[in-house]
């Protein structure tokens, strides 16, 4: 379908029609409950990573429970669970699950909260995206074994750049120029990150380590933006638009600086925005969509090891392997590490 859209005259409208018919025919069923209930997750290890103790360690306050969207909440729906690796005895990652609307009540969206005072983010180039065949310094294509000892989480980035209506900057290189007014995941040299309207909330400076743009903000100023309700594929996607229910993902930033990632099946842009806003996002953007590209994992150390990472999918039915991003990947992605100063000296 991609080659028809790109290479055949008049192909893009044809692809739009076919894909919309397909996804509406395959729309998720109304009603029901998740098979087996909400995902059961293993809580964080009771043995924290060695390093500084919690006393005096700067960290974010725990997030408040997410108010469920669907009527008749399931047990633990919207309640945060500590997962992954503790840092100095403190939770760095929490997850929760909720149903994304009041109609498709058998579907579950996963949400991951990341304490960016304990963690740091990195934008990792992929083999084909942002620039096919390019050579990049530092981390590129995957997280090698030598860099996994402090790996906390990974998650997918945005659309192909030609469809993102935005740009890509990283490792001191502007792969595609950044565009004012576009939703941007901005990572700073100190490892903190934000989601911003480029040119209004953030702009290029020596403190910007990376920036990845994708479409428009879906949450702005703590409110879901009116644009998400407009069925306009020119704004939201060159094929599926924003109302087709599909695997979608997004990322936001809370008022106190936590990153919040959400993903699940059967989401519109509007329902994705609703989930992120309820999870505390002050600003949020859509990332990639469809089951092939939507992936997020949080990590624990394998039993008895101080270097071997054991990843877990945020949503169990995400289609890609749990080892995605540990091996070379086509797309760029976000890797989140424990801050080196909080790890034990070697």
Order of helices and strands: HHEEEEEHEEEEEEEHEEHEEEE
N- to C-terminal separation?
51 Å
How would you state the average pLDDT, rounded?
87
Instruction: Return Rg in Å.
Output: 19 Å
The percentage of residues in β strands lies in: 25-35%
If helices are DSSP runs of H or I spanning 4 or more residues, what is the number of helices?
5
Question: Order of strands across the widest beta sheet?
Answer: 1-2-3-14-13-15-11-12
Profile the largest sheet: 8 strands, antiparallel
Which structural class matches the secondary elements?
A: mainly beta
- Summed up, the domain count is 1
Share of helix, binned: 10-25%
Number of strands: 18
Q: Please state the overall shape, judged from the principal axes of the Cα atoms.
A: globular
Poorly predicted segments: 1-8
């Amino acid at each position: 379908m991609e080659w028809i859209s790109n290479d055949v005259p008049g192909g893009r409208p044809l692809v739009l029609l076919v894909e919309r018919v397909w996804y509406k025919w395959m729309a998720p069923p109304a009603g029901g409950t998740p098979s087996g209930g909400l995902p059961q997750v293993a809580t964080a290890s009771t043995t924290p990573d060695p390093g500084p103790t919690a006393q005096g360690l700067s960290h974010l306050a725990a997030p408040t429970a997410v108010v469920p969207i669907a009527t008749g909440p399931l047990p633990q729906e919207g309640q945060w669970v500590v997962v992954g690796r503790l840092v100095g005895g403190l939770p760095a990652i929490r997850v929760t699950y909720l149903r994304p609307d009041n109609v498709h009540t058998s579907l579950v969206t996963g949400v991951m909260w990341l304490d960016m005072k304990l963690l740091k983010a990195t934008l990792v180039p992929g083999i084909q995206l942002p620039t096919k065949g390019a050579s990049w310094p530092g981390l590129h294509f995957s997280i090698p074994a030598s860099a996994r000892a402090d790996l906390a989480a990974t998650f997918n980035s945005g659309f192909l750049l030609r469809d993102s209506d935005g740009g890509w900057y990283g490792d001191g290189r502007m792969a595609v120029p950044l565009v004012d007014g576009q939703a941007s995941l901005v990572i700073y040299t100190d490892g903190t990150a934000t989601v911003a309207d480029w040119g209004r909330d953030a702009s290029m400076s020596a403190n910007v380590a990376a920036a990845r743009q994708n479409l428009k903000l879906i949450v702005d100023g703590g409110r879901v933006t009116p644009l998400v309700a407009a069925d306009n594929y020119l704004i939201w996607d060159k094929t599926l638009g924003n109302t087709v229910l599909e695997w979608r993902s997004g990322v936001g930033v809370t008022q106190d600086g936590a990153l919040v990632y959400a993903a699940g099946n059967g989401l519109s842009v509007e329902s994705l925005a609703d989930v992120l806003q309820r999870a505390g996002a002050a600003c949020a953007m859509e990332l990639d969509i469809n089951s092939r590209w939507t992936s997020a994992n949080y990590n624990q150390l394998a039993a008895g090891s101080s270097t071997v990472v054991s990843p877990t999918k945020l949503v169990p039915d995400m289609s890609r392997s749990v080892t995605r991003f540990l091996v070379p990947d086509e797309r760029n992605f976000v890797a989140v590490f424990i801050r080196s100063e909080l790890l034990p000296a070697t």
